[in-house]
Please model this.
Amino acid sequence: MANIEYIGTVWAINHGLPEPLLNHCIKKLVDHGIKKEDIKMTDAPEDVQVGTVVVDIWPYHLEVGRVRTVRNDSFISGSVMIIELKADASGTYID
Model:
């Protein structure tokens, strides 16, 4: 399992997803070397800098990207990795 290299805050972008999914996402990010206290859940990251790691949360995967351009309050990130999220038949997230 590859570790994610980062400095400072890792922004996890949440658009109203359920808490069990968010908790599992935090666990998966910790599994990839990110400290829990460095993960900030938000729907709109603030003061994003070039090089910052951002994570788009989707129901079945996490898209990890690194910011490469910032213009005004918007940013463009390039994909670093995709982390697959698995669930059992009842919808409970598993490793």
Q: What stands out?
A: The mean pLDDT is 92. The chain is about 15% helix and 40% strand.
